[in-house]
Amino acid sequence: MFIKSADRAVQAGYDGVQIHAAHGFFLSRFISPAYNHRNDKYGRNPELFLIEIICKIRENHPDLHITMKINSSDFSFSGLHETESLHICLECVKHGLDSIEISGNGTSVSGIKAGVNEAYFEKFALTLAENTDIPVILVGGHRSITHMNQVLNDGNIEYLSLSRPLIREPDLIQRWQNGEESPAKCVSCNMCYRTPAHQCIFNLRK
Ligand SMILES: Cc1cc2nc3c(=O)[nH]c(=O)nc-3n(C[C@H](O)[C@H](O)[C@H](O)COP(=O)(O)O)c2cc1C
After folding, report:
1. What is the pLDDT of residues 109-136, one digit of tens each?
2. What's the domain range around 93?
3. Ligand 1 mean position to 28 CA, how many Å?
């Protein structure tokens, strides 16, 4: 199914696909010791399944950009830990990933404040970026230009991705580009998960 969906993406004209191995979706559970209790090779080396998907997509579409979003950790006692995740990331890199986006379970952390607790998966992403040449993308809790620049300057992380701030302010990047550099107005309340079409409650009140 993953391979066929990449075929459909190419047919539809996309330049790249993202393999989703984060946030409790199927592949993130496959690589999590909390869920994967298999006794075969896919239990001993859970990254094998990701590698097979990457290699088959690459075989079918040599020029397609293949990225992967992956949990740095499940943040649970018996789940995936950072050491295991790093190993899985590096094995996938060896097999032809073009870039990798770092996230984690409990992805949309609430209560993020600019300058206080931004970029909550940064430490892991920095370690990964030190150990690979492909672009590392970091998601989660970017709220201010100051901190985003700091993340980019701290090490080898090349790209940042944002979600909730853009739900609150779809023109945020343009605003920053235009020199109005105050932090994102998103208060990380996560109500956007519950509203129709994932709108920001502050925008619904307007
Ligand atoms: C309403 C909503 C829907 C989301 N849906 C997805 C999704 O389908 N796939 C995904 O990888 N992440 C999804 N996310 C998580 C975001 O991509 C992102 O990883 C997370 O919110 C942390 O980044 P942020 O602090 O910039 O919001 C969603 C987030 C929100 C708020």
Report:
1. 999 999 999 999 999 999 999 999 999 9
2. 2-204
3. 15
